[in-house]
Amino acid sequence: MAEDDDEVVVLGGVYSLFSMRARLALSVKGIPYQNREEDLSHKSPLLLQANPIHKKVPVLIHNGKPVCESLIIVEYVDEAWRDRTPPLMPSHPYDRAQARFWADVADKKLFPAGGKLWTTKGRELEANRKEFIRVLKLFEAELGEKPYFGGQSLGFLDVALAVYCTWFQVFEVYGNFRIKDHCPKVAAWGNRCMDMDTVSKALPHPNDLYQFVSALRNTWFA
Prior knowledge:
Blueprint: E1 8-12, H1 17-29, E2 34-37, H2 45-50, E3 59-62, E4 65-68, H3 70-80, H4 93-117, H5 122-143, H6 156-162, H7 168-175, H8 179-182, H9 184-194, H10 197-200, H11 206-220
Helix pairs in contact: 1-3, 1-6, 4-5, 4-6
């Protein structure tokens, strides 16, 4: 069982969606940690040593032992600090399998669709917007009438998805649509998540993220 005085370090990037997950899981569980920003154009020896296979962030280093890949990190945090509330993974094996499945859908479908909203223009953007909304509606249906994907409280899938909330402004501005017009339940869920201190303090402010993305676009589309 992990202890309160354990050394916990996150190697990541402030605007990296996957790094946000690692920080968010620790924040939700109330685990103190040290955040180390990585310059991915000049990767540190520590990152290369901690993640020699993929050489990417995030990496959670717990008492000198590295854990890689964001969803694996979220599960690890939940298991290592099992005595800390709230529990993130569902208690039933089927529910755990479903949570993992939908988190995988987010990574394989929602993430690439969201990225294309601010990296494309014209007809390509129109097609990408339709695809993003189509995928988001899948999560709208999965959420149903529950306040959170985990039920009455934040769970594993909420942590996996809540990192998108700080990106909603970027998606809406550059995708030229409003999420609440198409997925009102997801929009309300996002507001509930961002109203939680444990969520908002672990994520960059949406305005800061928007300014970061705008600067990138200005260089790409100059």
